[in-house]
Design brief:
Blueprint: E1 2-15, E2 18-23, E3 26-32, H1 39-51, E4 55-56, E5 62-64, E6 72-77, H2 99-117, E7 122-123, E8 130-145
Parallel strand pairs: 3-6, 6-7
Antiparallel strand pairs: 1-2, 1-3, 1-8, 4-5
Helix pairs in contact: 1-2
Length: 150
Amino acid sequence: MIAVIQRVSEASVTINSAIKGEIGKGLMILLGIEDADNQEDLEWLTKKIINLRIFPDENEVMNKSLLDVNGDILLISQFTLHASTKKGNRPSYIKAAKPDFAIPMYEKFIFVLEKEFGKSIQTGEFGADMKVALVNDGPVTIIIDSKNRI
């Protein structure tokens, strides 16, 4: 799993001109799933996201987690995170999981993330044409790949 995590002061996702999800201060997460992902990747990434200390403390040092600042999460599925651009100019998405595997993994990720986080999160809609808007706070953007954890 690949996650692009952005610290935001606000973020939203719109589908067919209707807002599907929106948050204030928190994390906007783009999530890419591949066929090699499993429950261990899901749990590891969830813990990493929840405990990532990227919010400022009273000295403006990034020392607080999402839990510490009582922030929110907007999670968006994005298969293009697994794009390969090694050959030619048209990206290949061969590594991205197909919907029959990716949708259940995405739904499990939501369940585990909400359980670990202790509250509901906002989401987009898997496979939909989504318009994502955000104000990146900092800016702070972190990329985490569950396959590169060692």
